[in-house]
Design a protein that fits this description.
- The chain folds into two domains: about 1-225, no CATH class; about 235-440, no CATH class.
- The protein is mainly alpha-helical.
- It has 16 helices and no strands.
- About 85% of the residues lie in helices and about 0% in strands.
- The longest helix is centred in the middle third of the chain and has 37 residues, at about 260-295.
- The radius of gyration is 22 Å and the shape is globular.
């Protein structure tokens, strides 16, 4: 029987994307484990966890550039045959993560009691949320170091090690939560402590892997100022890009909060589904980051363009399949999440709008990963600002007209199309195809 031959680029993509997908899925399990354990303590602790989790997730989510930036930089060095330089840049990125994390931890510890007051919650909920944030603050540097060291390993074309470490950390988190919350009777503070210890353990494990590799190839373990400055420049651009994405979802939620309660509840369901779909698409984007960075570092322009087009095809296919699956499952998902007829109706409308835009989302995620891998952060930052500005009038029109949640997600679809336009134009231009160990072009 004739064996089916899988193209080398597809095999490489799958080798990187499958473990990356599993690692991405494992990340929300930290919060899921906390929620499952804390949920049995009562309504007030669970509500406090919801408030505290929003704060922590926002802080860490805005720093995802630490993973993306190191992936691109390390991948370029690796492609240029400079493994020592790749690890040196990775070490610099990890030091930057530690510095940013320490700063955020101090700020969070100082403001832990005040931040929950920004939410319209009872005093008892705010007090417990403040306690959680105070205990969780020391874990922020570890979370950011995990991002940076994961980026280093991705740049080295290794997505399996982060997966193993994150799975082990999740298991440790569950055990620690049960022991500290129930065994020692620490309540919500015990949950925060357990997650903090698990994150510190994950960071330590990944740091050991990176340090061993750095020593093996003679890379300096102290950050070189030029490498840190390069990481900062790329990081600022990717931060702007990430902030623009989060502001779109934030504005959508703010507008949804002006609608009937059923629409706001449906908004939460839709956001949850969109986040789940993002895991698969983001896994391909992560593979694109690693592959494009390495190829451009090696001066392989034609191979890079071919890889980008191949990955674009994968993004379109996976996005289309995700859209079709969501379109068929939307009525059943509404039933799975709620028994309220009004919420179900609003949920189905929102999910249909989300499903229709998934093929475009597949293209956007992949091209985003391609340009991040190419170190094209400045363009991504400007594109993020432009598309955010384009989205705001659409969202405000929904607000002013009193249109329903489905139209709000249609505005999200228009924003995604705008992102696709900016990214496709950049990919077609070829201006992102800058070769060498370090990207010097703007």
């Amino acid at each position: 029987m004739r064996r089916l031959r899988v193209p080398a680029e597809d095999r490489e993509m799958l080798r990187l994307a499958v473990p990356a997908f599993a690692a991405l899925v494992s990340e929300p399990l930290f919060l899921l484990a906390d929620t499952a354990v804390v949920g049995h303590l009562g309504t007030t602790p669970l509500a406090a966890l919801a408030v505290a989790a929003i704060v922590v997730q926002t802080l860490v989510g805005l720093c995802v550039f630490l993973a993306y930036g190191t992936t691109a930089t390390v991948g370029r060095r690796l492609g240029a045959g400079d493994l020592r330089g790749a690890l040196a840049d990775g070490v610099a990125g990890s030091w930057l993560a530690l510095g940013i994390g320490a700063t955020l931890a101090v700020g969070l510890a100082i403001s832990a009691r005040a931040l929950p007051g920004l939410f319209a919650v009872p005093d008892a909920v705010a007090a417990q949320a403040g306690t959680y944030l105070l205990v969780a603050a020391p874990g922020i540097p570890a979370m950011l170091v995990v991002l940076a060291t994961t980026g280093v390993l991705r740049g080295l074309q290794d997505t399996r090690t982060p997966l193993v470490v994150l799975v082990a950390a999740n298991i440790a988190n569950i055990v620690l939560n049960i022991v500290l919350v129930y065994g020692l009777g620490l309540g919500l503070a015990g949950s925060a402590l357990g997650t903090t210890l698990a994150q510190i353990g994950a960071a330590a494990a990944l740091v050991v892997v990176v340090v061993r590799a750095a020593r093996r190839y003679g890379a300096d373990l102290w950050p070189a100022p030029p490498a840190v400055l390069h990481a900062v420049r790329l990081g600022v651009a990717l931060f702007v890009r990430t902030l623009s994405l989060r502001l779109v979802l934030l504005l959508a939620t703010v507008i949804a909060s002006t609608m009937p309660a059923a629409s706001l509840a449906a908004q939460q369901i839709a956001v949850t589904v969109v986040s789940a779909l993002a895991f698969g698409l983001d896994a391909i984007a992560i593979a694109a980051q690693a592959m494009v960075g390495r190829r451009l570092g090696g001066g392989q322009v034609d191979e890079t363009r071919r890889t980008a087009r191949r990955m674009l095809g994968w993004g379109l296919v996976t996005g289309t399949l995700a859209g079709l699956a969501l379109l068929a499952a939307s009525p059943w998902l509404a039933w799975a999440f709620t028994s309220d007829p009004g919420v179900r109706a609003a949920t189905v409308g929102a999910l249909v709008a989300v499903a229709l835009v998934q093929p475009v989302s597949g293209v956007v995620f992949v091209l985003d990963g391609v340009l991040i891998g190419a170190g094209d952060g400045r363009y991504l930052a400007w594109a993020g600002i432009i598309t955010l500005v384009a989205y705001v009038p659409c969202a405000l029109l929904v607000l002013a007209s009193g249109a329903g949640l489905g139209w709000l997600w249609a505005a999200y679809g228009a924003w995604m199309v705008a992102r696709a336009v900016t990214l496709v134009l950049r990919e077609r231009s070829g201006h992102w195809l800058v070769t060498g160990a370090v990207r010097m072009a703007s």
